[in-house]
Design brief:
Number of strands: 16
Helix content: 25-40%
Number of domains: 2
Radius of gyration: 21 Å
CATH class of the largest domain: Alpha Beta
Strand order of the largest sheet: 2-8-7-6-5
CATH superfamily of the largest domain: Type I PLP-dependent aspartate aminotransferase-like (Major domain)
Distance between the termini: 58 Å
Structural class: alpha/beta
Low-confidence stretches: none
Length: about 450
């Protein structure tokens, strides 16, 4: 008989701690009013459990801290860049590595270079900065996720897959000159952190190449995607996450990466690709706005941390703990009849706020209202992924709402323990008990692009 623990044990010991402080309901009410009912505008010190994002919010390992002390801050030809380049080449197989200060910088440089007015970039689902950088270049960001992705309660092992039939139809009906590249996001953040299967990646690659279209991977959470493939796809259970990641990248021509996710770092990103001519164009723009090609806006110690972190993100003990922690929260919410995207994703649980707060119309932004209530009730900060983030204002003052109204509870890496998650569950059960009392919100200010970051609201 083999012992099987039910408790989720963190595969690390804690050597350093950062204090967090509880606040009163009265204090949180004042803080949120001053923030315009936008959790992005809260002071971090006023947040008890911060699930706003998993981007750059993780804890560094002792190996990363040690590597950072060896950071080479040379302007050109940095030893730290060579370490980073070697690691990226080992994982991805791509020849050319271009560091950037974070993922959206990679997106801006790539899409500014390849997009023209009326270009179209297909993807399973573009996330906010990806979409914004495409649209800033007067191109179109086209989402082609499978139909199951539109239904939160539907169970599908690879709900992040791209709809191959729709992609084929798109290629047939669109001039090749309008398609600078095709992308797939792993895991699919906008769609609930859902994985993309190896079979789907391989099929996308074959279709792209048959039409002469380059294929790129948005690789922010490549290690989590590799773990899901190992667990769910036939033929991969005996392969390591590294081997699976290497196969994933072998089907692509390049990738963009925010190293603030599965790079396990607080800052950084990169573009990696095999096209030398395109790499030269990207480097020329990088020099203009980011820095020399061997630092790209990063300090040497940042590149050291990323080089270590990329490999740590592929560790099986870490991945097992991370994915199971998210799954544990999802199970408890489902047992309490709190609707979430099923099955749980890799980095976050996504509450279906549209169903949870069905009395609030989409025009009053139920997901934003739920984020407000979670902070007021328990000091928890989450992020809206609904019509505030993805709604499309129209010239006549109306708005096309998002397909789903979601609240994302994103887990920083190696930061919170199971007791934090249990507190979160208690708080959400409390919120659920008074759900009918929650009011919607309206905009009092919004920026023309990426409005969710700086918007101001009032309660209705």
């Amino acid at each position: 008989m083999v012992f099987q623990a039910k408790t989720i044990i963190e595969p690390f010991r804690i050597k350093s701690v950062e204090p967090i402080h509880e606040t009163t309901a009265e204090y949180r009410d004042i803080a949120l009013k001053e923030a315009g009912y936008n959790p992005f505008m809260l002071k971090a010190e006023d947040v008890l459990i911060d699930l706003l994002t998993d981007s750059g919010t993780g804890a560094l390992s002792e190996q990363q801290w040690g590597a950072m002390l060896q950071g080479d801050e040379s302007y050109a030809g940095s030893r730290s860049f060579l370490k980073l380049q070697d690691t990226i080449q080992k994982i991805t197989g791509f020849q050319f590595v271009i560091p950037t200060h974070q993922g959206r910088a990679s997106e801006r440089i790539l899409f500014t270079t390849v997009c023209e007015q009326d270009s179209i970039i297909p993807n399973n689902t573009h996330f906010d900065t990806t979409r914004a950088n495409i649209e800033a270049n007067r191109a179109e960001a086209l989402d082609l996720a499978i139909d199951e992705a539109k239904h939160p309660a539907v169970i599908h092992p690879f709900k992040g897959n791209m709809d191959l039939q729709k992609l084929e139809q798109f290629f047939r009906n669109t001039p090749k000159s309008k398609i600078p590249l095709c992308m797939v996001t792993v895991t699919n953040n906008s769609g609930g952190g859902q994985p993309v299967s190896m079979g789907n990646i391989k099929a996308i690659s074959a279709m792209c190449h048959s039409y002469g279209v380059p294929f790129f991977i948005d690789a922010c959470r490549f290690a989590e995607n590799a773990w899901f493939i190992k667990q769910r796809e036939e033929g991969y259970k005996d392969k390591t996450p590294l081997q699976i990641a290497q196969e994933m990248f072998s089907y692509a021509d390049g990738c963009t990466m925010s190293a603030k996710k599965d790079g396990m770092a607080n800052i950084g990103g990169f573009i990696a690709l095999n096209d030398g001519a395109l790499a030269e164009k990207l480097r020329n723009l990088l020099i203009l706005t980011e820095g020399f090609p061997t630092y790209g806006g990063l300090a040497g110690y940042d590149m050291e941390a990323i080089a270590v972190g990329l490999m740590e993100a592929l560790d099986e003990d870490y991945l097992r703990y991370r994915i199971r922690s998210v799954e544990y929260l999802g199970e408890k919410l489902t047992q309490a009849n709190i609707p979430i995207i099923q099955p749980t994703g890799g980095h976050a649980v996504y509450i279906d706020a549209g169903a949870f707060l069905s009395h609030i119309p989409q025009s009053q932004y139920p997901a934003q209202a739920l984020c407000v209530e979670m902070y007021l009730a328990a000091g928890i900060r989450a992020v809206e992924i609904g019509s505030v983030m993805f709604g499309k204002p129209q010239p006549d003052g109306s708005e096309i709402p998002a397909a789903l109204e979601l609240v994302r509870l994103a887990f920083p890496r190696r930061v919170y323990t199971q007791s934090h998650v249990d507190y979160l569950i208690e708080a959400l059960l409390y919120v659920a008990d008074r759900a009918k009392q929650i009011r919607g919100v309206r905009f009092t200010y919004q920026a023309p692009m990426l409005r969710h970051f700086t918007a101001q609201f009032a309660l209705i």
